[in-house]
Amino acid sequence: MRKVNHLKKYSIYAVMLGGLIFTGCSDDDTPEVENEEEVITDVTLVFTNDDDPSDVVTARAEDPDGAGLQELTILDEINLGLNKSYTLTLQIENNLNSPGEDITEEVEEESDEHQFFFSFTDGAFANPTGDGNIDNAADPLNYNDEDANGNPVGLSTAWTTAANALSAGSFSLKLQHLPDIKSSTSEATDGDTDIALTFVLNIN
After folding, report:
1. Of 96 and 92, which is predicted with more confidence?
2. pLDDT class for 37, splitting at 50, 70, 90?
3. Going by DSSP bridges, is the β-strand pair 85-94/78-80 parallel, antiparallel, or unpaired?
4. Is 36 a residue whose pLDDT tops 90?
5. Model pTM score
6. How far apart are CA 76 and CA 60, in angstroms?
7. Are strands 125-127 and 156-161 parallel, antiparallel or unpaired?
8. Which of 66, 149, 195, 199 could bridge across to 175 with cysteines, CB 3.0–4.6 Å?
9. Please, what is the Cα angle at 160 between 156 and 164, to 5 degrees?
10. What are the structural domain ranges in the chain?
11. Which long-range contacts (CB under 8 A, 24 or more apart) does 137-144 make?
12. 23 membership: H or E segment, kind and range
């Protein structure tokens, strides 16, 4: 039985090699690449105080060469007030060309294939409690948005800071691309990672 399996394997390899040679000679029939990854050069976190919309805290990450050797680099720390409620929205852009491209809109349009996960210093927030849902998707997280199937997205989330000051804590987010596999139990390790960032978090 093993010999048969090996023969099948070698036959498959031969067919694959033949297919590669054939397609190499026919440029006109080359299929288009589907689900091509988007280039992301700028990510901005915007925390807006629910009780005072003029109180806005932003934190940015930038990758000036897009798909080049550099990665997204953190530019700012997150500085929030004690015992305040914020709505966090995310802005994702590709600014390699002018005008830039709004990747946020694409994530919204493909919300059934994307989900943000978050982690943070344990106890930094009164709501959600704990340390986020990157390590365990079932842990508390306040999503304000969902896809057509009722599953969370994470372009908008709700946060209430704790009453105790925090210095040099951490706040992380991950955007997972989950084509054809996103569900109510999707984890931060499923699919492919489009964005992974960790900011310094201060609350005072």
Report:
1. 92
2. low
3. unpaired
4. no
5. 0.81
6. 6
7. antiparallel
8. 195
9. 145
10. 1-31, 42-203
11. 137/185, 137/186, 137/187, 137/188, 138/185, 141/117, 144/87
12. helix 2-24
